[in-house]
Amino acid sequence: MSFSKTIINPEVGKNSHLFDGAGVDQLTHSAGVIVDADGVRHVYASGKTATMDQSPDPADWDRLVGIGDIGEQTRQVCRNITQTLAHAGALLDDVVRVRVYVTEPMTKRDFQRIHEARSEFFNPSHYPASTLLVVHALARPDAMIEIDADAVLPVSEAEARLQ
Asked: Which residues share a beta bridge with 97?
């Protein structure tokens, strides 16, 4: 079997104020990883929170959207995942699995709002497998939700979308 591995945005977090005084100057992970093997593309998107990743101003990239609103944070997370997938020629319809982390306390209404927001992005005929975990806190203060995603699609389809 032959395969290749490509890093999506290896400079994510470079020169972030979060590393002032640290022994590193950037995150030690990427936005995601593409693995092409035998004509199949696997895309692994790192966990995304509701930051403004699409902003043209790098100063906004650390800014959280929808503080206190899990529905709006979920929408922004889905937009961020969509952007990462696009770097690999993948779409949300190609996502086969997500892992969803939400902070406690999580109410029934929070659960509903998460799924209402996700339904705006995911096509019912392509719903991914999903795991939801309630956690004490996330690394980013005020983040209520973080989602990572795995996608699978033919390499040829991904490459055609990138052209």
From this structure: 129, 150
